[in-house]
Amino acid sequence: MKAADDSAKLPENSSAARRSPRLRQRVAWMYYVEEMTQSAIADALGIGRITVVRLLAEARAMNEVRITLSRDIAELSRLEIELQKRFDIPEAIVAPRSSVDADPRSVVAAACAPYISDILKPDMKIGVGWGRTLARTLGFIQDKQAPRLTVVSMLGGILRAHMAECYLIAAPAVVDSLATKRALIERCGLKEVFDFAKNLDAVVLGVGSLTNSTASFYGVVPDAELEALRALGAVGELLYNFFDIDGHIINHPINECAMSIPLSSVRRAPIRMLVAGGEDKADAMIGAFQLLRPTTFVTDEIAAEALLARRE
């Protein structure tokens, strides 16, 4: 989103300044982040299209339209506080989501990008997972000067990074055996990446569910394997390490074949950011909380409500 000109700010006693900040910010979020049309926003919120136009103009004039919106919405703050208390997470960030039909990936990506930009510092070593939500985050991250920044891909596959030295795992996400994995690490130059990842300053990763997983979407893990994992109690995966709702790794050969940085190294990073949206991932998120112990969790408001209801 484009930042408004400070000179266009409205006086505090104007009628626009007295409008509901929650409604104005929600309209701006739906328009700029979820890319809904003005007519669709009007229908979703039960207001006139002219009102939508005016609210968008006011948001720009009041300097509220940026990559991030002011998150002083009472309902979102309540959800963030409850998530932090219920799941013992130091910081939770809940993004607005207009309806169950809205794609959670875009809103979660837009909400986590400013946090990532803020934590980047010179000489920092940051590990990044991959998935459809994290891929969208790249479009929202603002360029920031962080000399000698190093980015480590924590899973085999492709990583795109800007203005940073990259350590890549030049291998498939999953190989055919533990012997192949060991050979690639010890004999094909990957040991340097795995050793470097033992001392990361921060990690950013998503969580996959077994109902709508990246592993299934990209065909990395066959459906028959996913069914076998479900039968063993698996609810989700972190870097293709499949786990149950209590955060225990499932006893299945595929967990030995993921070309990913060991979770023991991931958990060692002082900043651990978990990024996931969608109410269908509630069980996977709960298991990931136990397994990763994130310091920051970013999700959408509908998923947050599902998480809180699931735990009760």
Q: What would you note in describing this structure?
A:
The structure is a single chain. The protein has helices at 21-32, 38-45, 49-61, 74-87, 104-119, 132-137, 178-187, 191-196, 214-217, 223-231, 254-257, 263-268, 282-292, 301-311; strands spanning 91-95, 125-128, 150-153, 165-167, 202-206, 208-209, 236-238, 241-243, 271-275, 296-300. The model is unreliable at 1-18 (pLDDT under 50). α2 (38-45) crosses α3, α4 crosses α14 (301-311) and α13 (282-292) packs across α14. A seven-stranded parallel β-sheet has the order 1-10-9-5-2-3-4. The chain has a three-stranded antiparallel β-sheet with strand order 6-7-8. β2, α6 (132-137) and β3 (150-153) form a beta-alpha-beta unit. With 312 residues, it is an alpha/beta fold.
Q: Which residues sit in consecutive blocks of at least 5 with pLDDT less than 50?
A: 1-18
Q: What would you call the quaternary organization?
A: single chain
CATH architecture of the largest domain: 3-Layer(aba) Sandwich
| Average residue-wise pLDDT | 83
**Separate helix tally:** 14
Largest sheet: spatial strand order:
1-10-9-5-2-3-4
- Distance between the amino and carboxyl termini: 37 Å
CATH fold name of the largest domain, please? Rossmann fold
Strand tally is 10
Sketch the major β-sheet. 7 strands, parallel
How much of the residues is beta strand, in percent? 5-15%
Question: In CATH's first tier, which class of the largest domain applies?
Answer: Alpha Beta
The structure class reads alpha/beta
* Gyration radius, in Å: 21 Å
Helix/strand order: HHHHEHEHEEHHEEHHEEHHEHEH
Gross geometry: globular
Question: Helix content range of the residues, please?
Answer: 40-55%
Number of domains: 2
